[in-house]
Amino acid sequence: MEPQGIIDLADKIIYEKCTDWICFNSYFSKLLVSDDYDTFIFMFVIWTNKFIENELNIVCKKKKYLELPEKLDLSIMAEKMPEIKRWQKKIKEKVQNKTNWFINITEKTLEDNRQKKVLGMIECIQIIGRNLTHAATLYNEKFERDWDVFSTMMCLQYPDYAKAHINKKFQDEYLAANAFITKYNVFIPRYYVLCMDIYKTADGRRHNQDENRHNYARIAEILAEIPKIYRLILLGNSLEPTKKRLDKQGCISFILNVPFDKFIPTFVKVKKSYGYYDNYILNDGEQTLVCHPMHEVMVPCTKLYARTDIDLYVESAYIKTEFEQIKQQLGVYEDGIASTDAKKYAYENIIKEINIPDRETLLEKLGNPSSKLIELLNTIFKDRGDKAKKETRRKLVQNGFSRKTFYDLYNFYKSEHNKIRPEKDTIIAFAFCMELRLDDVINLLISAGYVLSPAMERDIIIKHFLMNECYSLEDLNILLERVGLTAIKGKSKGKGKECNLSSDKSAFS
C-alpha cells in the first residue's frame, strides 16, 4: 500500500468511533483478502497500542498522576507501587481478551476466504499482542519496558537471536512467525530493531564503542531497505490524512495529524530529557525498584528521546534521495528568486558534491564533545568585530528570532552562562547572518549534534545556498516556502521575551 493510503487507514483506525467488529470488517478483512500482510500487522500494532493507551489514560486521569511532581519522594513511590500493580493486572486481562478476540476473528476470516492457512501469521500476531500487553503492564523503568518490546522484535526478525534468548517451548512459535515475516516481507519488526539500534548508539553512555559499531552496521542495512512510510514516521514528519479532521478548541480549528508517535517508535527531540525519576529503596536488606507513576502510564516503545541528531544516521545510510523531484521543484522557481543568480542553482553540481561519510567517520562525529561547540563559537565571535555582531543580531531579529537567542549564542562559551543547546535552525540562521563558510557551518552543526543531510530536501537547499555563498535568509526562505518546506524563522513574541524557535521536526519536512 502507498504511504498516503497507510496514513489514511491509520487515521480511520485511530479516530473513528466504531465497534471492534465493524473496524475489523471495514479495514482489516480487506487487507487479508488483498494479501497485504505487511500493512495488516502494522495496523494490528497501532490498534493494540491504541486500546492500551486508552486504558492507561483512564487510569492517569482517575489517579491524577499528572499532578505529581517530576521528582517524587521514594516513600510516596513505594506506597503507590501496590496500587499500580493492581490496575496493571486489570488492564493486562482486558488487553489479553482484546487480542485473543482479534486472533480468533483473523483465523475465521482466513478460513472463510482461503483453501489453506497463511503459515506463521497467527503465531506472529500472538507474539506481538502478548508482548505489547506484557510490556505495557510491566512494573519497571521506561528503558526496561521499551527494551522488552525491542527484544521480542529482535527474536521475531532474527531466528538465531530467538534461539539464544527464548525458552525452548516457545522457539517453534517464533520460528514459524519468522518464516511468515520473511516470506511476506513484514517490515514492522525490523523497524523496531532499527529504532532501538539508533537509540542505543545515540545514547553512548549505556554502550561501548564496539557494540555501537555493530549496531551501526545493522542500522545501515535496515535503512537501505526501509519503506517510505517508515522513514517519514521515524523522522517525526507531520502526516496528514487525505480527508482532514478538525479539532475545535474554542473558536479555532486545528487539522489533526495522524499521531503515529503515540503507537509506534518515533524520535522526539527535546532540549533536555524529561524528568520522571525512578530509583531503588532498601526493603528487608534488598534493593527494590520503585517507579514514578507517570512512567507506568506511558505506552512502551513509542516516543524515544535521542541525544544525537537522527540526521547523522539517515545521512550515512539512506541514499535513496529524491533528487529528480527536488530538481523539478527548484526549476519552476529559480528565475523568480529576488537578487539571486539562477545559474547558481545548477542542481547537477550539488549532487556531484554530496558525499556520504563512511561509518568510522560518522562514529567519530558522534563522539564530538559539546566543548567543541563552545570553542568554535568563541573563535567565530573573536574573529568578527563589534560591527559584525550588531549586524548579525539585527538580521536575526528581522527573521523573527529574539535578541535573547543571539545573546544565548554569544554567551554560550562563558562558563557562568546557563547553557541551552542551540536548535538546528538557530545555528543555520546564525551562520547565514555571520556569512560563515560551508565548512565552518558543518563543523558548528556537528559540534551541536546536527548535520546537513543529503537525504533531506530542506538541508540540500540550505547546503546549496552556503556552497554558493548566497547568504540572504530572505531568498532562502522564499525558495523553501515555494517548494512547500519550512522557512528558517524564529517565533519571537515581543521584545524581551524568549522566542519559541521552530520545532526540530521542521528539519525533517
Q: Please give the largest β-sheet.
A: 2 strands, antiparallel
- Percent helix, as a range, is 55-70%
Kindly report the oligomeric state of this protein: single chain
On the 0-100 scale, what is the average pLDDT? Answer: 76
Low-confidence stretches: 316-326, 332-360, 366-370, 492-509
What string, H for helix and E for strand, traces the elements in order? HHHHHHHHHHHEEEEEHEHHHHHHHHHHH
**Span from first to last CA?**
22 Å
Strand arrangement, largest sheet?
Answer: 1-2
Structural class: mainly alpha
How many structural units, i.e. domains? 2
Separate helix tally: 23
Q: Estimate the global geometry from the Cα principal axes.
A: globular
Radius of gyration: 25 Å
β-strand percent reads: under 5%
Count of individual beta strands = 6
Structure, described:
Residues 316-326, 332-360, 366-370 and 492-509 have low confidence and may be disordered. The chain folds into two domains: 3-305, no CATH class; 311-508, no CATH class. It is 59% helix and 5% strand. It is built from 23 helices and six strands. It is globular and about 75 Å long. The chain starts with a helix and ends in a 27-residue tail after the last helix. The protein is mainly alpha-helical. Helix 1 runs parallel beside helix 3 (37-63), helix 2 crosses helix 4 and helix 3 packs parallel to helix 5 (121-136). A two-stranded antiparallel sheet has the order 1-2. A two-stranded parallel sheet has the order 3-6.
